[in-house]
Amino acid sequence: MKLRWFAFLVVILAGCSSKQDYKNPPWNPEVPVKRAMQWMPITEKASAAWGVSPRLVTAIIAVESGGNPTLVSKSNAVGLMQLKASTAGREVYRYMGWSGQPSTSELKNPERNISMGTAYLSILEHGILKGIEDPEVMQYALVVSYVNGAGALLRTFSSDRKEAIEEINDMDKDEFFEHVAEKHPSPQAPRYIWKVQKAMDAM
C-alpha cells in the first residue's frame, strides 16, 4: 500500500515538474533578436498602421523564425512571423474583404509577412480578446493566442467568452502566466510567453 502511494506521489510530482519546465532547453535570444531587428523599418511601419507594439512584433519574429524570411515549418507556417495561409492568412484576408488566402511566395515576402502578422495580432486584440484591461496581461494573451489560438486560451477559463474575459481581468500578469502554465493544453504556451519576453528584454 505504501509502495502504491509512493508511486502515485512520484507521478504527481513528475507532472508538476513538467509543467514548470518551460525554461528548458535554454534559449539565448541575442542572435535571433539581432537578426529580427534588421526588419525594424518594415516592422515599425506595420505596427504604426495596426496599432501594435513594434517591440512585440520584433520579438515574435525572433522567436518564430530567427529573422529568416524564407523559413517554412513542418506544419507549413511561412516566413518571418511563421504564418499559416489557411488560418492567420485567411483570417487577415477575410478582415480585409479579400477572398481566399495568401500564397507561400506572398508569405515569404518580408513586407507582406510582417504586415499580415501584425494585422493578425490587431484582429485578435480588438476581436476575440477585446475587453482584457491590463496591457501586460493582454500582451501575454496575444502571444499565447498567436501561437496556439485564442479559442484554446479562453476555454481554459470558461466556455463563455464574456465570462473568460472577466476571469482574466481578475488576474495580474503573473497569475495569468501561472494559469497558462497549469491549465493550457499545450506545453508550448508558457514557453512561448517566456521566450517572447526574453526577446523583448534583449532589445
From TrEMBL:
Q: Does the keyword Lipoprotein apply?
A: yes
Q: Where is the Transglycosylase SLT domain?
A: 44-168
List locations, semicolon-separated.
Answer: Cell outer membrane
Main localization is: membrane
- Topological relation to the membrane, as annotated: Lipid-anchor
**EC assignment:** 4.2.2.n2
Cross-referenced Pfam families: SLT
Q: Which reaction does it catalyse?
A: Endolytic cleavage of the (1->4)-beta-glycosidic linkage between N-acetylmuramic acid (MurNAc) and N-acetylglucosamine (GlcNAc) residues in peptidoglycan with concomitant formation of a 1,6-anhydrobond in the MurNAc residue; Exolytic cleavage of the (1->4)-beta-glycosidic linkage between N-acetylmuramic acid (MurNAc) and N-acetylglucosamine (GlcNAc) residues in peptidoglycan, from either the reducing or the non-reducing ends of the peptidoglycan chains, with concomitant formation of a 1,6-anhydrobond in the MurNAc residue
Family from the record: Belongs to the transglycosylase Slt family.
Its name, as the record gives it, is: Endo-type membrane-bound lytic murein transglycosylase A
